[in-house]
Design goal:
single chain; mainly beta; globular
Length: 418
Amino acid sequence: MKKIAAINCLSIAFLLILSTNTLFAFDTTITGKSDSSYDVKAVQDAVDKGGSVLLKGTFDFGKKGRVNIKNDVEISGEIDEAGRYLTKVVGGFWTFHSPLPSTELPIPTPGPKVKIEKIHFDGATRAPLHFAYTSGIEILNNKITNVLPLSYPYKWKGGDNLLLNAGILLGNRFVHMEKILPGAVTGRLIFNNNSVDLKCKKPEITMGQGVYSIYTWGAIIEIKGNTFRNVSRNSIETLDNYVGDEGKGNILIADNNIVTPPVGIPFPSPKTPNGIMVGWFLNKSGGSDPALLSKISIVRNYVQANGETSLGIASLADGVSVLGNHVEVGGGAKSIGIFQVGSNGFIARNKIDGSGAWALNVGPYKVYKGNGNTLAWNDFTDFEGSSGDFYSGGNKNTFVGAKCSIVNKGEGNILLTQ
């Protein structure tokens, strides 16, 4: 009995130690009051100190509340054993934001390193997370819902305004549109195991982006294990991300689960809403320039593309790898499973099912040539194509796989089927 009692005492002592370590593991702990006049200042003061910050309960940031991050900091919430979020941040405009210290070059580097985890962001305007100046971020296990679109004056065929909403914005583009600022957003940029739902009232005029990375510099970008719902343009969008001075730059998009809405904004192209969009758009020459182009890999994602003109996965760059993804095309008459306009890509072992115009479409678009790609053992067995299974409008592409419906409009393409 004494031995059992001693073991029990040790167990209790061990649990107390764990509890104490958990309680005092953070430099600062704040409990929200659901009062914007208190909550915003309390979180800002804690973040200004840097170190680690634990947020408990609900925080009200009102319509425009914002915490500017200028120091290295780790901001954590709480999730219970059932996966329920115990920490909630309501409202705000660019709720957590790392502002540029200057737009003059050279940018004083490095920017702050930031980690944010286990928080439910609900009802922010434009985006709850915006990093325009950082040398590394980790955004892990957060939930983002009800992001309110911001009206932006811009004349287009849909009217005089665009509505904008996003889960997270990475890069200096949104505060300095003119050009990339080398070193402003760099380092390891990680967005893993988050849930993003951008359901909105007017998806046909809302530029929705779940993750939008543009104008980063020499960054190692990882977007992995997330879920995206109701994003009215591109659920994952990485465009015009530059390699750094030492040629560093890598983008991995893996193991994400994406279901697009049936309606999205037909801007800047009529293809909408889309699952994954990568490459170069503003500086299209960057998509084929090794001095600028980061290595891009798209691996093991599930994409359900439900729009009339949706693209499941689209690549606007050379040398992109698209491997082992499952794209389900929802029946749109002009929809495409995988759309490759870059050259020298490797597209293999993807499964495309459902129905649409094409399962796989490779060919030129604007400055992109769609040449020299290798397309191997992609599965179209359960796909019904109104135009066909595979279209090649580019040249010197190599297709290897099971017999399927092929339309070949290019020159020097090698088509090996069995």
